[in-house]
Amino acid sequence: MRKTYVSIEDVLRSPWVSERPTEQKPSVTDRVLRSTRLEDSIYADLRGADEALDAVERTAGEKLRSFPALSGMSTSPSTP
């Protein structure tokens, strides 16, 4: 036979309360931020003054207005 609980107090006094798992605080990491910084650093090292990549970025910027913000490229031309 099932026991029905009429109020929240009945539930809190029930044996089920002792069975609930303990809450664990999630560990905080900055893996995504570190990964992004690493990718940005690698991109900056490899980027240099690559004229072909400049052309691709300009073309993409013309087709997709949000591309400069998404790619992190500046709107001013790069200087060697």
Description:
This protein is mostly helical and 80 residues long. It is built from five helices and no strands. It is elongated and about 75 Å long. The relative contact order is 0.07. The C terminus is likely disordered.
Give a short synopsis of this structure.
This protein is an all-alpha fold and 80 residues long. 56% of the residues lie in helices and 0% in strands.
- Coarse shape: elongated
The ordered H/E elements are: HHHHH
What is the number of E strands? 0
Unreliable residue runs: 75-80
For the sheet with most strands, the description reads: none
Distance between the termini: 81 Å
Mean of all residue-level pLDDT scores: 76
Q: Treating each run of at least 4 consecutive H or I residues as one helix, how many helices?
A: 5
Please state roughly what percent of the residues sit in beta strands, choosing from under 5%, 5-15%, 15-25%, 25-35%, 35-45% or over 45%. Answer: under 5%
Radius of gyration in whole Å, from Cα?
28 Å
- Share of residues in helices: 55-70%
Q: Pairing-aware structural class of the strands and helices?
A: mainly alpha
